[in-house]
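Example record

Each entry pairs one chain with its bound ligand, magnesium ion.
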Amino acid sequence: MPALRRFTLDELEMPLVEPFETSFGVERRRRLLIVRLESTEGDVGLGECVAARDPLYSGESVATARWMIQTYLAPLLWQEGLLSPQEFSRRAAAWRGNPMAKAAVELALWDLWARRHRRSLSRELGGRRNRVEVGVSVGIQATVPALVRRVGEYLTDGYRRIKVKVRPGWDAGPVAALRREFPDLRLWVDANQAYPVTAIDAVRRWATRYGVEQVEQPFPEHALAGHARLVRGARFRVCLDESIGDLATLDAALGMKALTSLNVKAGRVGGLGPGRELGRRAARASLPAWIGGMLETGIGRAHNVALASLPPFTFPADLSASDRYYVPDLVEPAFELGPGSTLAVPQGHGIGVEIVDSTYRKHLRRRRELRRKAP
Ligand code: OSB
Ligand code: MG
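Structure tokens for the complex follow.
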């Protein structure tokens, strides 16, 4: 029976190719944690934590995730042989919250187990596609013409679905300009909870008028009833992201008809297993689901692409080519946009991409070996 030999927790700082601005702030350099596990058989597994330096998107941050992993999660892996990802999730569920910290470890276990089985992560998870359809998420820009130019460049690159970040004061104007310039554009927007529910009529008005196909998370995460009101009679889809962290909440939201699309992020919901469960539950309810992103490096992107290859995830993912985020990326081969606005699903063992050591070392800020406590 194999066991764990090494648990390494790294912190890196990666400069984004351009700043990414959302309703909650601007990110220029991403601080991130990487979990590296090594078994006694010599197999390795990698996981990326999506918690950001500051708790703006959700309550977690790099610091809380580090503390959670060191204090509670790593000791679970030292207790016996090699835990399966599912068993890890069951045990980790004893502690409330902290899904991003849990996901970082869970992702590394999936990679490790897939490599152990000499299978791709996609196959290990039950993926069926060799390529996944993707779009691009465009941050808030300095001016409307700058946004139009940026979107035009992404369309030229080959992206066929564009999601733009919106917030009060950066919505009807930019969206109108995009519709004027690109009449056939498949346009989604994401507000990251920036509107009060009282803004419902205004949101409905510009989204309808400018042919927005999907409005993501306009209202606060707990405002399910507000989202349900927006769904009623809407000519666009209402997508929930931050609101849906677990199956019970998805069931509640489905019961209230509070969503017509679901953004699943493995890194936000506790990992690939929980993400797959959300996708399956959505499919059973005929709710379209798709894979979101959190500006991951090629490590987390590889996990997300594998999850996106599963049947329930039918809408184009927020997973773009490596060069939209980091140049160079941390891994090889980097992700490149292919025909029909797609990314190839890596077919090698595990996540199917390998760390480029020189790049990784350049961005490494801190390394910590988490050892088994003395008995
Ligand atoms: O809400 O989807 C979001 C990035 C950081 C935090 C939240 C979100 C995003 C994105 C980027 O939209 C998606 C990507 O990784 O390309
Ligand atoms: Mg979102």
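The longest strand covers residues 4-22.
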